[in-house]
């Protein structure tokens, strides 16, 4: 699964730590989600989408093999 979290985060002028603090997760969680090494729970995905006032579908894109 691909995602555009880093693009949204950078456009908002946030560091990984600032986003993590805003949604109450660790910076490592944000890092591993952004690099697609970890697929977030629905709750984390929704928190990120709500933080950026966008839809989960705008942040996450399924690959053909997902």
Automatic annotation (TrEMBL):
SMART domains, per the entry? HTH_XRE
User: HTH cro/C1-type domain location, by residue?
Assistant: 5-59
Keyword annotations:
DNA-binding
Q: What is this protein called?
A: Helix-turn-helix transcriptional regulator
Kindly give the InterPro entries that the UniProt entry links to this protein.
Cro/C1-type_HTH, Lambda_DNA-bd_dom_sf
Its domain of life reads Bacteria
**Which Gene3D superfamilies does the UniProt entry name for this protein?**
lambda repressor-like DNA-binding domains
Tell me which Pfam families the record gives. Answer: HTH_3
């Amino acid at each position: 699964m691909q995602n555009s979290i880093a693009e949204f985060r950078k456009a908002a002028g946030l560091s990984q730590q600032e986003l993590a603090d805003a949604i109450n997760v660790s910076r490592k969680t944000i890092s591993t989600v952004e690099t697609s090494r970890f697929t977030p729970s629905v709750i984390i995905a929704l928190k990120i989408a709500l933080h950026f006032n966008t839809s989960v579908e705008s942040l996450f894109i399924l690959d053909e093999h997902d």
